[in-house]
Amino acid sequence: MAMLLFYGSKMADLDTTLIEQFFERVNKRGRVTLRDDLKTNLIKLKLIRNGEITYAAELLFGAPDCAIRIGRFKSEATIIDDNVVREPLMIAVEETLTFIKKHINLSYHFDGSIERKERWQYPLEALRELLLNAVVHRDYKSASDIVIKIFDDRIVFTNPGKLHGKLRVEDLQRNDYVSSLRNRLLAEAYYLTGDIERYGTGFVRIRESLVKYKELALKIEEIGDFFKVELHQVPQTAPQKTPQKTPQKTPQKDSLRERIITLIAENPSITQREVATGLEISFNTSREYFKKLKKEGRIKRIGGRKNGYWEVMDEQG
To answer: Which segments of the chain are extended strands (E)?
Structure first.
């Protein structure tokens, strides 16, 4: 079993701050109580065995020799942004989710209450489940990395290692499937923090989170020695596409201004460079239009460059 391999790491090689934060989360969740010293607690969780640091502990709190590769693609051959996350898993999961949120659309709507509601392009709970599934179930004996690709209309998670044991792709389509754990210590760690609610229910929760996303479909498959999961937009019917294409038939100069505003409205986190790529214009042209629109009061920047977003104002404001 991959999680029982010893790689020669010592306690000094582990990030004690991460370990203490992990213990705090475990105690807060209440599935087990960790009140002893650091080493005793790690022994209790079987992250130290026979006096040796397990590979699971090294992955969670040390310097793992594996990574999560993630990119934002315009097409299979055109990449807009990418990152290689090579951190302890306790950091890597959140860092990866931050990158994903930066590159998927966020819209707002009102449901009758005073505050507006956020609606991400994909349900965040499904994205977290898919990422945790890749981290917990990947084959760590493989030299390949987890790869996540974000396209305009889909997001794809691929991790090394087929389904473990006798579990098959068709089993995951049912709600009564029984999970088969390749990396039990990792699964146990995320279970104790509450990131995993119960073994063998991840895909059940993913399907439940998609109930309100009728425009999305889930695709699961094995390709070679890899496990692949895709969330993609369901193709729209012809009558629904017609209104979207009509504005693009007017090639006047001002139509570019309106197309930029439409892109911003659809994806408030979009960057000036992404607008330039999407509309096939120069970056300088995109930047100048953003300046004009800000000056005219058509758009407004909320927050800073890294974590902020754009807000489209109405004609009066």
So the answer is: 48-49, 52-53, 68-75, 78-85, 106-109, 117-120, 146-150, 154-160, 216-223, 226-233, 299-302, 309-312
Q: Are 220 and 255 found together in one domain?
A: no
Q: Is 56 helix (H, G, I), strand (E, B) or coil?
A: helix
How far, rounded to the nearest angstrom, does the alpha carbon of residue 66 sit from its chain's CA centroid? Answer: 18
How many domains are there within the chain? 3
Q: Among 198, 233, 268, which residue terminates a domain?
A: 233
Mean pLDDT of the region 10-36 = 93
Range with lowest mean pLDDT among 74-88, 154-168, 255-269: 255-269
Would you say residue 2 has pLDDT above 80? no
**CATH for 157:** 3.30.565.60
Q: In this structure, are 45 and 73 located in the same domain? A: no
Question: What is the domain range of residue 40?
Answer: 2-61
Taking 60 as the threshold, does the pLDDT of residue 249 lie above it?
no
If asked whether residues 28 and 73 sit together in one domain, one would say: no
Mean pLDDT score across all residues of the chain? 87
Say if residue 25's pLDDT is above 60: yes
Could you tell me the CA-to-CA distances from 109 to 112, 186, 234, 243 in Å, in that order?
9, 38, 21, 21
pTM: 0.70
> Does residue 317 fall inside a structural domain?
no
